[in-house]
Amino acid sequence: DAFLVNEVRATLERYHKNLTLLKIDDVSNVGSIKLRVRSLVESIGLGLQGEGRSSEEAFETTPVFTKAERRRKLIAPFFTPFLSPLIPSAMKVAGFDVENLPMSDEESCDLGLKYSNNEVCYPATLIVGDVVKAFKSGKYNPDETAVIITQTGGQCRASNYIALIKRALLANGYKNTPVVSFSFGSGIANEPGFDIPWRKLIPVALATMLYSDSIAKLYYATVARECVKGKAAALRDEYLDRAKPIIEANRPKELLPLVAEAALRFNEVCLDKDVPKVGVVGEIFLEFNPFAQKNVTDWLINKNLEVVPPLITDFFTQSFVNLRTKERSYLERKRIPAWLVDVLYRMVSKKITRFNEACSGFRYFMPFDDIREKAERASGLITLNAQFGEGWLISGEMATYAAHGINHVVSLQPFGCIANHIIEKGIEKKIKSMFPSMNILSLDFDSSVSDVNIVNRLLLFIDNIRQEK
To answer: Distance between CA atoms of 377 and 403, rounded to whole angstroms?
Structure first.
């Protein structure tokens, strides 16, 4: 894999040796392989492989984020238009100064390809490019700034994004810039200065996630029916801005009346009409980030379709199911008593119910589904032990869409994302056998995918929707 190749190459370079990488598949012409092997043999004969030079180059990495580094500004790659604007406010509660970088663009893509392996998944390319672009812009002093990136620590290439970012920083001479891992797990990085007061942060973080997901639900249902173009976007921006001081002041309970007010306001600008619904699933960065997905969701909206958005809340609450599943399958020892997990689950469910009630004033609001019900639906399609990438959640989302009568789904994946290709494309046949009316479009994205290719496939996809009508 690209990450492993990077590390092997870097290790050999420290010992003045080169890496010869042979990629072998089922092609019958082995001439190119023979040529590279001959080149390797000749380079050894000429002493170009470091023979006679035993000195080892020092291992280079970025500095550790110590307590003295807490004064630094933390820059974070842009993730989603709904949650990203609220993240700096939530992190102020934890005592950190976080600033979002702008959304990715073509320059991000070019820089990401230049300073990372061009065979890594597309989100990694964009994130590395965003970070390099930020420092090259001159806006941030690398000696007074740190980079922060979320990490799950699971079986996904995303667990290696930190190594990619560090390599890109070093390649550009930013040797004094720490890279911070924001994770619920442990053992991912040594960061003595990044101590999160979880008891203080979790209540406001949970409310912030639910609030951002609620605004997304209100926005997407309204923008397909808005009485005046632009009204839904204006309300979205207004209520995201109004939430920021509430979150910074650590008053999460005040987000409930605010979202209830938002529901009524969205209701006022929403026309009464039936609109075909399209569910969105896929890899978390692609399904939430407009640039990464080439604005597929906006394209669907412009075709008078209602996008049923993915939810960041589900991505985190699936951990309740994952923990119990691993214990039952003897993949993990029981670390947390079952009664405590159930208490925490009921607390989260109660909070979700309150947001459902607060948003009920919007007549097209689709309530949050129970994550355990999604897991139950997913278990008929795939084992719940499939927890790599987005895991069984993609199956659960598709089955839940079908239960709600939503039979059109777009799946957004990075090209070469092995985990998601298995857990999404691998279950398509079974999905269609269980739900014959299900219309699934799988779209793969990388730095070279053409807009024409994406649009042509989307046009064929919505033709089926028009024929249904």
So the answer is: 9
The pLDDT value given to residue 186: 45
Please report the DSSP string for 234-296 in residue order.
HHHHHHHHHHHHHHHTT-GGGHHHHHHHHHHHHHHTB------EEEEEE-HHHHH-TTTTTTH
Is beta strand 98-100 parallel, antiparallel or unpaired with respect to 145-150?
A: unpaired
Concatenated DSSP letters of 169-186: HHHTT-TT--EEEE-SSS
Give the pLDDT confidence of 336-354 residue by residue, as tens digits.
Answer: 888 899 999 999 999 999 9
Q: Which amino acid is at 233?
A: A
Q: Which amino acid is at 148?
A: I
- Both tokens assigned to 398: 């598709």
- Phi and psi at residue 374, to the nearest 5°: -65, -40
The Cα angle at residue 117 between residues 36 and 136, in degrees rounded to 5: 135
Q: What is the pLDDT of residue 187?
A: 44
Q: What are phi and psi of 280, to 5 degrees?
A: -120, 130
Helix, strand or coil, per DSSP, at residue 61: coil
Task: State the chain's mean pLDDT as an integer.
Answer: 91
Residue type, 150: T
Q: Report pTM.
A: 0.90
State the distance between the two ends of the chain, measured CA to CA, in whole angstroms: 45
For 303-348, the pLDDT digits (tens) are 999 999 999 999 999 999 999 999 999 988 888 888 899 999 999 9
Nearest Cα to Cα of residue 286 among 388, 180, 400, 415 = 415
pLDDT at 57: 81
How far apart are the C-alpha atoms of 452 and 222, rounded to whole Å? 28
| Residues forming beta bridges with residue 149, ordered by sequence position | 181
The amino acid sitting at 213 is D
- Asked if residues 219 and 232 have their Cβ atoms less than 8 Å apart, the reply is yes
